[in-house]
Design the sequence.
């Protein structure tokens, strides 16, 4: 039994490389656009649908021809497609012939007012589309027309089930290839402010809310995780506090905390809430937290003796440990704000030696680094940095930019860009520049705040690493340290933009870190208040459809204005353009009349 020639050609065909085949699929597997390698499933989507609907194709396949000639229905399908296409083409040609003739007669009778109305309406519609597209782009960072085209039209055009199966396969491959890339994760700000004594003062003075509901909701979840446990069941004061942490209204939260203290004067979590939200000065906060620390220490010692009796008692001891450490950390931050630097550094050092799970969330080493930089203890800061700036530990803007500051401190006072361009960089200057490039690659938003190119706002209670929220939180506390080192900001100003030449495509490939995540903009918009302009990296270009609608709106508006001012010349111009457009069609019709018999053209025209 012979082998069909079509099978030989299929066996000898070379499929496209898998990497190129998935190039567009990584962004949207359901889209087959320009620059991508189409898969066989995409090309055969409509053909498979035709075959599934046409039962006559299966009837033509006999047992003898099923193996040797398995594509008979494909050949028939192609023949049907070609026939239908030719008929539709002839029909379109003849319809256009009569349409052009009738349109010429119709347009010759129109007045200039019609042209003005037509172009004006077109300009108005395109202008409305432009406004909507611009608003959607400013809010969501993408084009609405592109989103609809990619998510709804392309999968429908590309084929139903086959395209969906390909999307599933491509998604699984991408997940396997990118499983090591970290996702965007929101972290608690180690240097977050006090709501009553700091955030609320901004609200009173400017009538602006510095915290978003999303940010406060995350804080409420953290407080429930840290300060509640299953052993609180049956204790009315702790049940009240469980409800208070979830309450949205601050006045109701404060009232609930006072009710809990009336039931149990030793409820440390109620003192925490009052210190965070009711006190209007740092001195009051410190007094309230010292009372809370006394009760928290007593509760901690009591639960330490009974933690091994049951799982509930173990959870109770874990909760008391979290409360105790949290209060000590906030007291150290109060000492830092009140200028008691030795006391604050001592407390931060003691806390960094603790090992409970809460320590992984608080990131107390960043508080310690900031306090050491405040007293200009650069050697101690370098020692702390050497412990935490490890390849196995998660990075942050505080770690990267503090390392850059310490290296820049050694050369910044004598650095001159003119001299460096002539003689080249020394080893110390090269190390400082590389440290700045490393820091900028990790978070490219920080330099604009350090160089005061963007206004600072109060930092949120939660930050997104490598995002604008982390940059604000870092610059809010560390800008003073950069200003104190002579020449550090000048060195940063001269070198930070060179990072972008090292990583021309930051979303695809990084230099020292993972590619820059694409989810930072959306998360930062949720974390930061609406009056702040979120920094976006890399800078997005205007979508094609915004430029297109802007050009269309301007062009149609210009046509409307010209037609209104000069009706007769514009009418003559419209007729001239119409005649030019009719020339190639007339040429094609003349060729068809020379090839096809006249009676066939006559019958087709009647149809």
Sequence:
């Amino acid at each position: 039994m012979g082998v069909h020639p079509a099978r030989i050609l299929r066996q000898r065909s070379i499929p496209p490389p898998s990497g190129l085949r998935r190039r567009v699929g990584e962004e949207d597997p359901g889209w087959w656009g320009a620059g991508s390698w189409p898969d066989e499933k995409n090309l055969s989507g409509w053909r498979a649908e035709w075959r599934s609907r046409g039962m006559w194709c299966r009837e033509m396949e006999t047992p003898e021809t099923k193996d040797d000639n398995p594509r008979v229905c494909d050949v028939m399908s192609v023949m049907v497609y070609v026939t239908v296409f030719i008929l539709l083409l002839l029909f379109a040609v003849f319809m256009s012939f009569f349409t052009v003739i009738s349109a010429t007669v119709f347009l010759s009778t129109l007045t200039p007012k019609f042209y003005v109305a037509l172009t004006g309406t077109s300009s108005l519609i395109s202008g409305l589309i432009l406004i909507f597209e611009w608003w959607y782009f400013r809010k969501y960072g993408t084009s609405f027309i592109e989103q609809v085209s990619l998510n709804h039209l392309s999968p429908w055009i590309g084929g139903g089930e086959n395209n969906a199966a390909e999307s599933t396969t491509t998604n699984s491959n991408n997940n396997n290839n990118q499983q090591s890339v970290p996702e965007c994760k929101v972290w608690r700000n180690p240097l977050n402010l006090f709501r009553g004594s700091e955030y609320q003062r901004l609200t009173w003075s400017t009538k602006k809310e510095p915290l978003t509901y999303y940010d406060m909701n995350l804080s409420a979840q953290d407080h429930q995780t840290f300060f509640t446990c299953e052993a609180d069941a049956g204790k009315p004061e702790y049940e009240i506090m469980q409800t208070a942490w979830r309450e949205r209204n601050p006045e109701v939260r404060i009232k609930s905390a006072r009710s809990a203290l009336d039931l149990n004067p030793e409820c440390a979590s109620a003192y925490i809430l009052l210190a965070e939200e009711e006190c209007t000065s740092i001195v009051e906060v410190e007094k309230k937290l010292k009372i809370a620390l006394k009760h928290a220490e007593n509760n901690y010692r009591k639960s330490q003796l009974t933690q091994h009796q049951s799982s509930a008692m173990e959870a109770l001891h874990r909760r008391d440990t979290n409360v105790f450490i949290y209060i000590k950390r906030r007291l150290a931050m109060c000492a830092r704000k009140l200028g008691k630097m030795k006391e604050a550094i001592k407390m931060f050092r003691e806390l960094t030696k603790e090992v409970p799970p809460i320590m992984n969330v608080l990131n107390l080493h960043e508080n310690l680094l900031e306090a050491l930089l405040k007293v200009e203890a650069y050697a101690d800061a370098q020692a702390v940095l050497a412990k935490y700036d490890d390849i196995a530990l998660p990075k942050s803007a505080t770690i990267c930019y503090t390392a850059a500051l310490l290296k820049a401190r050694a050369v910044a006072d004598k650095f001159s860009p003119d001299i460096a361009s002539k003689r080249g960089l020394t080893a110390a200057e090269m190390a400082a520049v590389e440290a700045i490039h490393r820091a900028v690659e990790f978070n490219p938003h920080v330099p604009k705040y350090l160089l005061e190119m963007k206004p600072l706002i109060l930092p949120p209670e939660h930050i997104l690493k490598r995002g604008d929220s982390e940059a604000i939180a870092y610059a809010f506390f560390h800008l003073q340290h950069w200003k104190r080192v002579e020449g550090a900001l000048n060195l940063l100003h001269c070198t930070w933009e060179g990072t972008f030449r090292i990583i021309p495509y930051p979303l695809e490939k990084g230099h020292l870190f993972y590619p820059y995540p694409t989810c930072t903009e959306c998360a930062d918009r949720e974390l930061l208040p609406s009056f702040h302009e979120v920094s976006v990296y890399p800078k997005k270009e205007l979508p094609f459809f915004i430029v297109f609608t802007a050009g269309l709106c301007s062009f149609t508006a210009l046509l409307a204005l010209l037609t209104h001012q000069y009706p007769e010349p514009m009418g003559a111009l419209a007729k001239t353009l119409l005649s030019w457009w009719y020339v190639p069609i007339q040429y094609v019709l003349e060729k068809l009349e020379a090839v096809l018999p006249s009676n066939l053209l006559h019958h087709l025209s009647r149809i």
Observations:
- The chain has 32 helices and two strands.
- Residues 544-605 form one domain.
